[in-house]
Amino acid sequence: MTKYVDRPIPQISLADFDKRKDEITRQLCEAAENVGFFAIIDHGISREELDAAFSLSKSFFELPQNVKQTVALTPLNAGYECRSQVRPSTGVPDEKESYQLQFGENMGDRWISDEHLPGFKQSSLAFMHRLQAVSEKLMICVARGLGFPDGYFVEAHDVSRPNCQTVMRLLHYFEVPKETAGKVYHRGGVHADWDFITLLLQRQGQPGLEICPGREVVTEWAKGHAWTKVACDPDSIVCNIGDLLMSWSDDRFKSTLHRVKSPEDEGDNYEERYSIAFFNQPCTDALIQGPQKKYPMVTGQEFTANAIARNYKALQEATNGAKA
């Protein structure tokens, strides 16, 4: 049985942002230092916009499998995948499908055609820009907290540039049979994100997100540690610090382990779950180094490549350990 502990998830209002920048900066930095997760409210995206985005996502995932495969995932993290993401924490594919959407040249021809889903590209990009605008407010506060100019991180994550790497990921977790006959289903294995800040949108009545604060447990993939369930509030946006910001802050801000719960305890959700994740990732030529220069300077492209390599190494070690 999973061990749980109640931890407060800080809630930060973005209301009157221009007048409250200093207050919001203090709240955000405190949450980033102590929890690595927080929820934002008064973010300016209406319930109608959120509902429309989830409706569009559901329309995509309801397409025939052969149609979805016409935009199959590329090595540049753009396109559709199904039961193909393997976490080192589990060694088996997550029980989900997802569609990675990007602003820049990495997306290429991986937009589903209007023949199959009219207006999908235009509607998705419009919503992505809405999330980017929210992200930029957070970036301004992070920059202030670290002593950088207000626009420092906004410029590094400029989605108008063709070499941007920011991703919006549409996610659909499959319904899991209640009678598993001993089989363990992993919806979203334990992991830490490698981006700057992740924004996560959830649906009412579709819980599953759990966190395990404390960066020191990453190398153990949170085995034996206590978890906290994150409330599923459709009007708030759950945000977590990624490995990139942890490095860029000289480890001041904490990248936090999280997962989408595998059903095993009484009261777990066995039904399908939809969520939307927005991963803020820098342009490939952005220069990454914290104010105290704790780590060598790297580009956005190098950081992403290194993160992928670390994940692959961890997966290989986990796989080899399971075989031993």
Q: Which strand-content bin applies to the residues?
A: 15-25%
Query: Approximately how much helix is present in the residues?
Result: 25-40%
| Succession of helices and strands | EHEHHEEHHEEEEEEHEEEEH
What is the radius of gyration? 19 Å
Keywords: Iron, Metal-binding, Oxidoreductase
Family: Belongs to the iron/ascorbate-dependent oxidoreductase family.
GO molecular function, one term: metal ion binding
Protein name: Fe2OG dioxygenase domain-containing protein
Describe the structure.
It is a single chain. The strands form 3 sheets. An 8-stranded mixed beta sheet has the order 1-2-10-7-12-5-4-3. The protein has a 4-stranded antiparallel beta sheet with strand order 6-11-8-9, with no helix packed on it. It has a two-stranded antiparallel sheet with strand order 13-14. The longest helix is centred in the middle third of the chain and has 27 residues, at 120-146. It contains 7 helices and 14 strands. It has a single domain (3-322), classed as Jelly Rolls, CATH 2.60.120.330. It is α+β, with helices and mostly antiparallel strands.
